[in-house]
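Subject: for your reference before the review

Hello V.,

The reviewers asked for a structural picture of the protein, and I figured it would be easier to keep everything in one thread rather than splitting it across files. Below is the amino acid sequence we used in the manuscript, unchanged from the supplementary table.
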Amino acid sequence: QVQLRESGGGLVQAGGTLELSCTASGGTFNTYALGWFRQAPGAEREFVAAIDRAGASTYYSGNVKGRFTVSRDNNKNTAYLQMNTLQLVETAVYYCAADPRLIAILPGGRYELASWGRGTQVTVSS
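And here is what came back from the structure prediction:
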């Protein structure tokens, strides 16, 4: 089972940019699809973006498409979430998750994902 650790969170002004990293250990990284999720205070966790095992296909929620970019480097066992033009409402804890099944990560399913990181706080200020 792969273990995940997020990093790169912090405080950023509205309209600013931040890049998150998700580093994996203990598993074969390129056998997992990866997803980014976030949970704002008082809200449910929501899907943000996903990427398939090879990094060939990416998926985004409607409210981040065009501003966020998900990528991965399988040689470094790391996935990234580049976030541009951040908005106040995007203050949340951001999590990465891994599962061999891409469909399990995409919204609409009810799957228990194989691995979750502990999250990294992103705070967008005015």
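For the response letter, the relevant points are probably these. The mean pLDDT is 96. Helices lie at 102-105.

Happy to draft the paragraph if you're swamped.

O.
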